[in-house]
Specification:
Elements lengths: L1 H29 L9 E7 L6 E8 L19 H14 L3 E10 L2 E2 H18 L3 E10 L1 H6 L4 E4 L4 E3 L4 E3 L4 H7 L25 H26 L3 H7 L4 E3 H6 L5 E2 L2 H12 L5 E6 L4 H9 L5 H16 L2 E4 L1
Length: 328
Amino acid sequence: MKKTFCLTIFLVFAFSLNVSAQGLLGSLLGGGQETKKKIRVQFVEGDEEAAEEILLVRIRGVIHETDEDESNPFKAGKDMIEELKKDLEAARKRKAIKAILLEINSPGGEVTASDVIYHQINKLREQTGKPVVALIGTMGASGAYYVACAADRIMAHPTSIIGSIGVLMQALNVQQLAEKVGLKAITLKSDKTPMKDVLSPFKELSEEEKSMLMQIINGIYDRFIDIVASSRKLDREAVIKLADGGIYTAQKAKDNGLVDAIGYREEAMEEACKLAKIETAALVKRVTRKSFSEVWSELSSVNSDLPALFGKLQTTLKFGSTPTLMFR
């Protein structure tokens, strides 16, 4: 046991030294720029013999931007936005890729992260002319639907939950609890910044503070409405009636113009081929050489659910402890 542990530590240490040496050598020889990597893809399904490809891109789970220290080799998980950018860059550079199938299964998430993903997909369509078909899985709500609006076509599974168009901001208030247990918060702020401690958990929200926050929330809500109305070619007032935060079945969403069709991956691929003006295609996904952090994450989760549990706890604490604007 002791020998195995020592060997593991030695390998980790050796790997770290090797990565550092490679990074230093690359900086000296290449001016700090990464060497050009060949884009590799893996067949998923469809016509394996086809020359044309459709790239599979997935948006899963709560939409957020990871703020972990990139220098930490033991970090688990991937940055959703960075992975998306790599996928879209592959679609940009690989000539065989003629369209993108964007599979979405998410309850939404951070406002800015959702908007960045929407922007990146929209930019790819404008720059390359390659069509994007979004296929909503179990859920495509709030920020996830915001992202779907960047696609040329939106499809949904028969059992999908869609909608929840709106903006949310939440914060905890523990003022009464603190008083009961004898806790008292001391806040010092300059005379000219009376709203500096807005949404403090130790005081009630004033009318002035509420008015300020509502202006922000309503402004972002208006942007959401404009994006849905523009992408779905719907009357703005009609979208407002739908955008009360409620959710819809796939059929109801189709009836209201929020999605184009109901179907499965096969139908979504057929729609992508039609938009790309090709007869058939192979569905592929981007593959890369795994980083040490990704290998570490996979090894850690082979016989344990702890990494997943820690990830859930981290997300809960992140979105529950600080006021955050959410499409969720």
